[in-house]
Amino acid sequence: TQNCPYHQKASRYEDSLSGHLHKLPTFAEQPVSSARPYKPLEYDTQKCPDIGGLESQCRPAKDCAIWYDDVRTTPGTTCLLANGIGHGICCPDLPINRGESLFETPRPCKKGVELDARFKRIELGWVNEASRAGRLLMESMIESERRLAENEITVRRNSSRYMHSTIFFQSKENSVKIGNSSLYAVFAAQQFVKRYRVKADQAACILNRFHVKDAGIYNECPVYPECNQEMVTSPYRTITGVCNNVHPPGSVPWGVPNTRYQRALAPEYADGVWEPRRAQNGGQLPPPRVLSLSLIRDVYVPSESDTTWVMQFGQFVDHDMLETVESKLVDGSAVPCCTDGGDFLSEENLSHGKCIPVVIPEDDPFYSNFGQRCMEFARSAPACRSNGRLGYVDQMNQNTHFLDLSAVYGSDEELARDLRTFKDGTLNVTRVKRKGKHCIMDLPPPDDVGPEISTCALSKAVTGIDPPPEVRCFKAGDNRINVTPYMVASQTVISRQHNQVAEQLAAMNAHWDDERVYQETRRILIAQWHHIIYNEYVPVLVGREKMEQLGLLPLQYGFSTDYDARVNPSILNEFAAAAFRYGHSLVPGKQSLINRERVNEKDLLLRQHFFKTQEAYPPGNIDKLLIAMATIPGQTVDNVFTEEVTNHLFEEEGKGFGMDLVSLNIQRGRDQGLPGYNEYRVLCGLPRAKHFSDLLDVLPPKVVEKFELLYDSVDDIDLYIAGVSERPAPGALVGPTFQCIIADQFARLKRGDRYFYDLAGQAGSFTEDQLNEIRKTSYARLVCDNSHVLSTQPLIFKSVSDTNPIVDCNCLASIPRMSLLPWKEADPTSWNIGEYEVKWFSDCDYVGFDIVYIENLGPAENCARKCIDTVGCNAFWANGNWCTLKAIPKWLQRTRHNGGLCGLLPGKFF
Ligand code: HEM
Ligand SMILES: [Ca+2]
């Protein structure tokens, strides 16, 4: 029907398939295996201007994403594709990647640091003693946790702390176990440095000499399977990412869940082990909340070229790459770090060490209205000592580090199974019944945890109506899917895409079972995901030149050979705790519903919609959220944040205040041991600042002024606050320091991923035809194909402009769609007309071979008759094995579904 184009769309891959088989391909369904190198199509008669001295050609917009800034400022770069039917953009070929070297892994013994003479020889006895003391501390920690419970100091359901810890940082049982048991080694190391007065910058070097086992310290690291031949040669990545990097037996594999973040720089813990950093003068650093208050709030600084999708896609990618394990009580519940009334816990109860609450100043212009002095903050959990030696704390990632859509498929086998239907390779969904004239499509499946985590509906107090009973939290590969309505909409698009591709693959390859369809679909989706990230998203974030420098540019044709088994793909601690949180500066205070006429129907105030999924259900709302993200300008990365996250993060209904995300970010950086901003300037090639005024090269004067006021030394400045405040680097969304950290990370995720989508000669490599189809992917196309937005601009991260105008989703010239035809596999059980070699077996022993002719004889009976008349039928393919098959009826069965195609065996039998 007219109102429901989706039903017509559902068969789109078949359409393009039949197009290939029966008629000449239209311009839009360009033949599989597009030209190489990029050859302008004949109809592109228009002359394109030179761009930056380079010759340019008219292409679909997605092939110009990386040039967009240049294109926008060069006149005459809009062009017509396909005999004037589709809108295109003129841009040059991409430059050749350079692929410069990545950050070096820091070593336990710092260059230039002399060990004190008394540490030249240390006996194991010292460590044993420290280990005993550490064990006592551990016992006392467990004791104080018991006291907390006795005194009924717990995290109250529905409080913002509950949302932060139990819902946002939902930790899996084994992650909590690893985190808690790893504390033995942490306490032992802390006791050691304390007792023997080891200087912080020597601690790692000295501790590294001791094996935890020798010191009698409990250390439980998960045991990983060895990589067998099947894992090494599988075309599909494992769900956990294990054996992506083929690890030597007994070692800890890279990139798998519950392994540590790596570091670009050695940490700066005050004690060299786990104590948060202190100021250079030995005193306290400025309280995070004071720094946060120095930021500018709620001044809307719209981006002149980006859409809100840049923010939202970033968060989605973030949820693929990482989720830090937060410390939990030994029983797995949230750690309370303040009283429910917002005061500090008394000394006695504080002693368990998992907390470093954020101090709220007495005169806080906001929180003082609510009598709040203490903001909850539990430390990130320590990772196990995977190298078996003592040392400083590293934090751990609960997700697969790889870009593998783990936010959709799950990072562990159990969850991955829960998300599947095990029918036709599809994922579970919520089917919303059809109401009214809207076409309602599937939503992600409900989380079946039950009412314990039932904060997903807005109460009557906010909406004036009782929450409808069907409202549930959604379930996905990452638990943070429910964090905002935009996030739900983003995940919805990908889960619909999975099911569409699966449906088409299954139809095309009837002989594939559920597992095969699921894995092939997952492989295609992850490849599309990679292409969007490196072709559309990373360019916006770090700019073309930085991409070229680090080898991040996607190829226009052919294969890459960039995989390097020595590159550790793991997420950098600096990336997780600071750089990739750049996105918080882009978060808008409201999310909106905008209809197809581009009329804003409704604003959702963020504070009311954290972990509320109610708005995802009404028919058409997902579309309206998707349109809003493509329509509303994004923001700039700067020191301007919305109050919705700096005062009202995870606000409990009716309280009037929530948490402050900027304070959490700064505190998290200290919690995870990040050195100061100045160190990262040096790492990233900026001069080390000696005075505050040296910061003016990349920071605005107003910011430098504030830093000078608040920090005692330039070396004290926290990475996060300075990083977001930097002026954007040329061509980039972020400043040079975040740009350098983010680019290094995306280079690792490319070079260190054996299943990266454009690699040649790897187990997971695509054929060239397949790869060229994947390259047709754009984010706009995925949004178009999995919603009813009906029209959009082709570069969805970029605002609508003359160069990037809104086009109809059906316009395949402007927003191409990949064809799945190269995934059509010859089905050995469904014969096509032609000649086949048949192996002969006598009771399954090989006796020889013959040629079989398949021809079309009409109905199956004819076939059987001819068989008997001419040659007789003796053997055929069954269940994937060549075997004798003497009975004619089975032969009939095999031919029947082929509508009269029949195998004829000339002459020779046994
Ligand atoms: C409404 C939008 C968002 C909300 C409510 C939100 C909320 C949060 C919260 C509460 C944390 C944990 C803070 C802590 O205790 O350390 C966090 C961490 C983080 N956020 Fe966001 N965020 C949002 C958007 C974004 C965006 C747009 C990006 C990136 C483009 C992003 C990247 C990150 C990263 C990388 C972390 C670290 C996560 C971890 O270590 O597990 N966030 N966010
Ligand atoms: Ca992942």
From TrEMBL:
Recorded superkingdom: Eukaryota
GO CC terms, sorted: extracellular region
Subcellular location, record wording: Secreted
Binding site for heme b: 584
Full protein name: Peroxinectin
Pfam families: An_peroxidase
MF (Gene Ontology): heme binding; metal ion binding; peroxidase activity
Keyword Phosphoprotein in record: no
GO biological process: response to oxidative stress
Keywords: Glycoprotein, Heme, Iron, Metal-binding, Oxidoreductase, Peroxidase, Secreted, Signal
